[in-house]
Here is the input.
Amino acid sequence: MKFIEKIKLINFKRFATFDYSPRQNRNIFIGDNEAGKSTILLAVDIALTGSRSRVETLGLETLFHQDAVSQFLAGDKSLDNLPVLLVEIYLNDHGKMELEGVNNSDERICHGVRLKCEPMDDYGGQIKSALAENDALFPYEYYNIIFSTFAGHYYTQNHRFLNHILIDSSLIGFEFATRQYTKSLYEANTDLVQRHQNNHAYRQNKATFTGSSLAALNKAVGAFNFDIKNDSKSNLERDLMITEEGIPVSQMGKGRQCFIKTEFALQQREGARPIDLILIEEPENHLSHLNMKKLINRIEESTQTQLLIATHSSSVCSRLDLHNAFLLSTASTKLVSLQELPDTTANYFVKAPNNKILEFILSQKVVLVEGDAEFMLVDGMYENIFGEKLENSNIHVISVGGTSFKRYMDLAVLLRIKTAVIRDNDGNCQQNCVDNYEGYSEDNIKIFYDENEKDRTTLEKCIYQDNIELCDELFSQGRRTLSVQDYMLNNKADAALKLLEGGLDRLVVPEYIERALTWIRE
Here is the structure.
């Protein structure tokens, strides 16, 4: 099996430096927008494809790390200080000596390929002149685009050392992306001899069509003839398409296209060249919940292909095992691995429906509550205490259910996310609120509860006792058998909604919740 052992980036898009050793099977990148998930996939795809024209189409100005450019222009603008863009893909040893060498930034003997963009040696004088001008611009035009192996051999898009494809749902519907995908799969399922034979037969059939079907027409028109294109832009590989039940995949909905392309790529036909690497950009896009589940099941079954997946989906990152997940933050360029999660916690998120793992992972500060009532009221309580809306802070409130607190606390320990847990004491503070969380003594995690084990065991009891007049006013009318407090206990969500609608501005916040919100706000 061929696979990537390490990815190294220097001055590529948002990364000044980036170093990552992927797992041999699945790698799931989780992060907010602009965190760099897509950047990693793009860098790998470009380096493995070896297409100079693609780099030129994207533009060096979009690929270069802009801080490196800005720092250079703010400095002495010396030719020797011009930054270099580098993408290095370290591969496992699969017997190709043309890949082995020390032509890498680690300066060690290993297998791999790289893209290097550096100033052209022959244009030093022109570059100096351009940089000497007032308001000098960065000299992108004078940069070489070089694809080479670690052995120092140059390569192009016609020589791929790792059979890979990129499935990007945002590009589905674009003719070029569809054509490249089809070409990659065609090459994966045929050898070079078969492709030559197919191309020759295709050209013969074109000639036969011209000589038979167009013969009468050409005879009639005289000096000029109609013919069929037979150049490099009209060959078999450009004309191929994938169909399902006779319908071109490119004519289907985006969700169906995404599903079929991933499914097709994961198929390993006996005797075919395997797909060594699949890069999948946000597979959840355009898919229904049912098709998303089917796709995840199909990916789970894949064992012979290395996968790099960028996602915003909780289902994707949890169902494919959190031990395979890596977190990217907009505040940092370093990946945080979730491999250190306890197995019980990882398994919980795999099985638990509607988990909020992605919400939690992408938050800086979190308030965990155990029910809908708390979730509904905390926003208003925060505004009552501090005179500002919670949505304008960097605090995120998540309702997870009391039995799940420790699963999210495991994430908080690993990712250093500041987390306030608000829970009922349920009549035993020591057992339920202290002993139950023994081992979570981190300074970024704190449990908040009311210490009155007799009269204030739940949120509803605390709210009622701190707001008797308000609650009687809102809930006493029509109460025949239940007291106001019992009604609130039996109808938690409805009671919380009525408090929001009719008395939030007068609501006295229970002391333990105020402590929690004050601490998380610090």
